[in-house]
């Protein structure tokens, strides 16, 4: 019933948008206001991820939470809240999936491997927490996929592709090793799927770049019929794009090309290819620069059609001046930004942006000031959640109860609380 209501709502929205465009040009955007509808306690929530699960049916959302502490040589936990859409206003008690992973980071859906499964990248530069891995989790099975060696690598993301054309989906990831003394090392690797009936590990490790590769996020995309990999490096301060002359096969490194999207060395913390930011019906890159003194949120327009290999990526700084509550080594702001289409009775041709402030303790809402002008990249910035003492981790947003309104989940790490907001209009 809720799906039918949502479909009717979407049709009504499209109709009103069309009519207002033709007859009511003065209709303006209403103000988006977050309404706190619930919160629950959990020790040190860091990364929140919403994944499709089969708790009730195929439309069920599960909330997954990575928690970690800075105590050396201890393991950490991953929790879930199954069917979060039906628990939004009830007492929420998360279920612990595992307590045996060291510093779990943002969780990645692993549906290309096994439906309703996940990959948990792990490890960080905190002493005693640097020995990470990529953990495959399906139901109660937890499998480390990266072969262990004497070097402590940590991981933040994973992508999926049949790299060698054998019919089995492989895993691609960036990773970093940051010693106490000496320069960081970064690599771009891929793990070969052994093709077993069930997922067992470890998988065979292969290198795309054995040095100077990305270390945080990686994302495949099709641009002008060319498959590319967008990737960023926080420690090497690079924003890069890869492609292969032998595509769809990527296992021959002699056919691999890399270009720098921006030549300004910045601590690029997150990168994602969005459908469209400025309303010109072309995809854009949304990139976070996490810095101790002047963090920023940046958009890059892709080169014109047919020029993705050599054309210019046009850069737009959407917001800047972010910094942590207290300056210290390892602290920075902001965190990840996400682009969301906000459906309402008002006209919004451009998506809204939700930005985690990371160590500045805030969550921000960014809206395009000139919604009808694709050439204008000005945004208003509003604080929609603020903590005076807590780092804010990875925020996630979805309409989990199918009522037409978005829910926003905010992890306040030092407060040991996950806040739940509904994004409404005034």
TrEMBL record:
<feature type="signal peptide">
    <location>
        <begin position="1"/>
        <end position="21"/>
    </location>
</feature>
<protein>
    <recommendedName>
        <fullName>VCBS repeat-containing protein</fullName>
    </recommendedName>
</protein>
<keyword id="KW-0732">Signal</keyword>
<dbReference type="InterPro" id="IPR028994">
    <property type="entry name" value="Integrin_alpha_N"/>
</dbReference>
């Amino acid at each position: 019933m809720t799906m039918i209501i949502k479909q009717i709502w979407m049709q009504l929205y499209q109709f009103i948008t069309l009519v207002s465009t033709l007859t009511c040009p003065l209709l303006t955007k209403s103000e988006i206001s977050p309404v706190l509808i619930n919160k629950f306690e959990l020790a040190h929530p860091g990364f929140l991820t919403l994944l499709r699960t089969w708790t009730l049916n195929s439309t069920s959302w599960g909330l997954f939470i990575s928690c970690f502490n800075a105590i050396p040589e201890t393991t950490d936990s991953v929790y879930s809240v199954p069917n979060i859409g039906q628990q939004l206003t009830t007492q929420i008690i998360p279920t612990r999936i595992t307590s045996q992973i060291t510093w779990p980071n943002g969780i990645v859906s692993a549906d290309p491997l096994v439906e309703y499964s996940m990959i948990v990248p792990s490890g960080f530069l905190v002493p005693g927490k640097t020995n990470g891995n990529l953990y495959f989790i399906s139901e109660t099975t937890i499998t480390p996929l990266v072969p262990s060696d004497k070097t402590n690598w940590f991981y933040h993301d994973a992508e999926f592709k049949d790299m060698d054309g054998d019919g089995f989906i492989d895993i691609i990831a960036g990773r970093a090793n940051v010693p106490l003394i000496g320069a960081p090392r970064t690599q771009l690797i891929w793990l070969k799927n052994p093709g077993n009936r069930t997922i067992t590990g470890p998988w065979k490790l292969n290198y795309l770049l054995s040095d100077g590769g990305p270390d945080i996020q990686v994302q495949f995309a099709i641009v002008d019929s060319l498959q590319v990999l967008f990737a960023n490096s926080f420690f090497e301060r690079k924003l890069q794009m890869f492609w292969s002359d032998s595509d769809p096969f990527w296992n021959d490194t002699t056919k691999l090309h890399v270009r720098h999207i921006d030549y300004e060395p910045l601590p690029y913390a997150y990168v994602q290819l969005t459908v469209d930011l400025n309303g010109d019906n072309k995809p854009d890159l949304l990139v976070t620069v996490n810095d101790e003194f002047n963090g920023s949120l940046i958009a890059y327009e892709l080169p014109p059609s047919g020029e993705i290999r050599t054309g210019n990526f046009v850069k737009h700084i959407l917001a800047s001046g972010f910094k942590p509550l207290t300056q210290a080594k390892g602290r920075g702001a902001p965190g990840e930004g996400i682009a969301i289409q906000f459906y309402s009775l008002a006209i919004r041709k451009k998506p809204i942006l939700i930005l985690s402030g990371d160590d500045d303790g805030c969550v921000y809402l960014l809206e395009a000031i000139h919604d009808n002008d694709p050439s204008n990249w000005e945004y208003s910035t509003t604080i929609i959640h603020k903590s005076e003492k807590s780092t804010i981790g990875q925020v996630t947003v979805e309409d989990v109860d199918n009522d037409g309104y978005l829910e926003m989940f905010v992890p306040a790490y030092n407060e040991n609380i996950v806040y739940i907001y509904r994004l409404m209009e005034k």
